[in-house]
Amino acid sequence: MAKKKADVTDLRLASEGKKKILWADRDMPVLALIRERFRKEKPLKGMNIGCCMHVTSETANLMRTLKEGGASVALCASNPLSTQDPTAASMVKDFGISVYARRGESVPVFYDHLNAVIDTKPRITMDDGADLVNLLHNKRAKAAENIIASMEETTTGVIRLRAMEKNGILKFPVIAVNDADTKHLFDNRYGTGQSTLDGVVRATDTLLAGKKVVVVGYGWCGRGVAMRARGAGALVTVTEIEPLKALEAVMDGFNVCPMAEAATFGEVFITVTGNKHVLRAEHFRKMRNGATVCNSGHFDVEIDIPALRKLSKKVIKGVRVNVDEYVINRNKSIFLLADGRLVNLSAATGHPASVMDMSFATQALAAEWTAKQGKKFDVSVHDVPSKIEDIVSKLKLQSMNVSIDRLTKEQVTYLSSSGEGT
Ligand SMILES: NC(=O)c1ccc[n+]([C@@H]2O[C@H](COP(=O)([O-])OP(=O)(O)OC[C@H]3O[C@@H](n4cnc5c(N)ncnc54)[C@H](O)[C@@H]3O)[C@@H](O)[C@H]2O)c1
Questions:
Q1: What is the pTM of this model?
Q2: Residue minimizing CA distance to atom 38 of ligand 1
C-alpha cells in the first residue's frame, strides 16, 4: 500500500489555518528575510528534512522557509496535544508540506507519525524533545546512517542528547539549538513566561492579581513565568533545588521555600523543571481545596498524575475545556490543566510569533550551516556558531528599529590591550 503523504485531522480547516500562519508571519520578520534569501539561493536543495516539533503557525513558517530553501520537508508533532489542526491542514494544502499530526492523537498514532517522518529518509532532523533521535537510535537505527546531523530545540532534548554523548551511545552529530543565546534567553524566558500564563488564564479564567502562584524551577522558563506572574499582580513563590538559582530568585524579590511548605498555601502551581514528579502525593496531600496544578516543562512527568489519581475518590474530566477535577474528598478538589502536558501549547497557542522568529531564524540558519558542512561534523553535541547568533540578533534589532553604538578605534585598542591601568 502506498504510504500516506500526510495525516491531519481535516483538510477543510486549511483556510482558517492559512490565516493564522500568515498572521504569525507578520511578526516573524527575521525568518521572512531568511526565507527570501533561501528562495533565491536554495541552500537546502535536494535535502530531506524530517521534523518533530509543535505543529503551530510559527513552526509552519519555519517549514515554509526550509522548503523555499529547496528542502523536502516532513513534520510530525512533538506532543500529542500541541497540534493546531487548522495549521496542520494548511501546511499540507497550501504549502505542500507533509504533515503527520492530529491534535489529541493516541500514543501509538503519535509514534506512527514519527515513523512516517523517518520513512521520508531525512538527512537532517529537527527535534523538540529528542523523540526522533531516540527512535533513530533504537527501532529505526538503520535510517540513522543517512543523517548528517540533528537540531534540538529544547532544554530537555539537549540534556538527553548530552547524556547520550557522555555514555558514548550517540550515533550522529547534534546541534544544540536550544543552547544558542538567541533561543533560550528569549524563547524560554519571554515566550514561556507569557504563553504559560496565557494557558492558565484561558483554561481557568482566573484572576492572577493577588493569586498565590508557585513556580517550580527557576531556570530560563521559570524566571520568565515568575516575572510575568508578578507583573500580573500575583504573589509569587519559587521552589528550587539549586542554591544559586534559589539565591537569584530571592534577590529578584521572590519568596523562596521548599515545596513541602509552598504546597500548604499555593493556589496555582506551575512546574517548569524538566524533571520528574516535582509535584507528588506528599504535596497533593498538603494542598488546599481548589489548588490548580499545571506544567510547562517538556514532558508530562513533572506532576505525578498517577499518584494524584490514586489519592482521588473520583476524577471529573472536562469541568472546563483543558481542566479536570480530581476530587480528593468532600471538602477538597485539585484541578489539573491540560493533562499535565505543556499548558502553554495545550491550553493556549504557545509562544508568540515574535519570539519564535528568533528561535526559528536560528534553526533555519543552523540547518543551512549543517547542509554546508555535510558529513564533516564529528559525532558529538555542537553549539550553534556565534556568527549565526550575531546575524539573528542584528536582524531582530533592525526589525524593531533599534540601533546601537559601535566601538571607537580607541575602544577597540583599549579592549584588546593590557597596558592601561590605574
Ligand atoms: N513550555 C514551553 O514552550 C517550553 C519552552 C522551552 C523549554 N521548555 C521546557 O521547560 C523545561 C525547563 O526548561 P529551562 O530552559 O527553564 O531549563 P533550566 O535547566 O534552565 O531550568 C530548570 C530548573 O529547574 C530546577 N529544578 C530541577 N528539579 C527541580 C525540583 N525538583 N524542584 C524545583 N526545581 C527544580 C533546576 O535546578 C533548574 O534551575 C524543560 O523541560 C524544557 O524543555 C518548555
A1: 0.93
A2: 219
Q: Which of 152, 154, 283 to mutate to test the pocket of ligand 1 (most atoms within 8 A of CB)?
A: 154
Structure confidence by residue, pLDDT tens digits, 128-148: 999 999 999 999 999 999 899
In the reported structure, the alpha carbon of residue 223 is separated from the centroid of ligand 1 by a whole-number distance in angstroms of 10
Cell 547524556 locates to 163
Q: Report which ligand 1 atom has the smallest distance to the Cα of 245.
A: 39
User: For residue 98, how far is its CA from the centre of ligand 1 (angstroms)?
Assistant: 31
Instruction: Please provide residue 399's backbone torsions phi and psi, each rounded to the nearest 5 degrees.
Output: -65, -20
Our answer on whether the CB atom of 278 is closer than 6 Å to any ligand 1 atom is: yes
What is the 5 CA–ligand 1 centroid distance (Å)? 35
- What was the pLDDT predicted at 401? 96
Average confidence (pLDDT) over 151-165? 95
DSSP 15-74: HHHHHHHHHHHHT-HHHHHHHHHHHHH-TTTT-EEEEEE--SHHHHHHHHHHHHTT-EEE
Per-residue pLDDT tens over the stretch 81-118: 999 999 999 999 999 999 999 999 999 999 999 999 99
Of 238, 272, 359, the residue with max ligand 1 atoms within 8 A of its CB, to mutate for a pocket test, comes to 272
CATH 3.40.50.720 occupies which residues in the chain? 192-346
Does the beta carbon of 266 lie inside 6 Å of ligand 1?
no
Check whether 1 has a pLDDT greater than 50.
no
Phi-psi region of 70 (alpha: psi -120 to 50; beta: other; left: phi over 0): left
Average pLDDT along the chain: 96
Start-end of CATH 3.40.50.1480 domains in the chain: 7-183+351-399
**Nearest C-alpha neighbor of 82 from the set 347, 295, 401, 266:** 347
| Nearest alpha carbon, ligand 1 atom 3 | 192
Q: Which three cell numbers stand for residue 269?
A: 502551581
Instruction: Pick from 52, 128, 155 the residue to mutate for probing ligand 1's pocket: most ligand atoms within 8 Å of its CB.
Output: 155
Give the domain 192-346 fold.
Answer: Rossmann fold (3.40.50)
- Please tell me the predicted confidence (pLDDT) of residue 4: 79
User: Is the Cβ–Cβ distance between 159 and 134 less than 8 Å?
Assistant: no
CATH number for domain 7-183+351-399, candidates 3.40.50.720, 3.40.50.1480, 3.40.1190.20, 1.10.287.1490: 3.40.50.1480
pLDDT for residue 157 is more than 60? yes
Cα separation, 61 vs 30, whole angstroms: 11
Q: Tell me, what's the pLDDT at 418?
A: 82
Q: Does residue 155's CB lie within 6 angstroms of at least one atom of ligand 1?
A: yes
pLDDT tens for 335-382 read 999 999 999 999 999 999 999 999 999 999 999 999 999 888 999 999
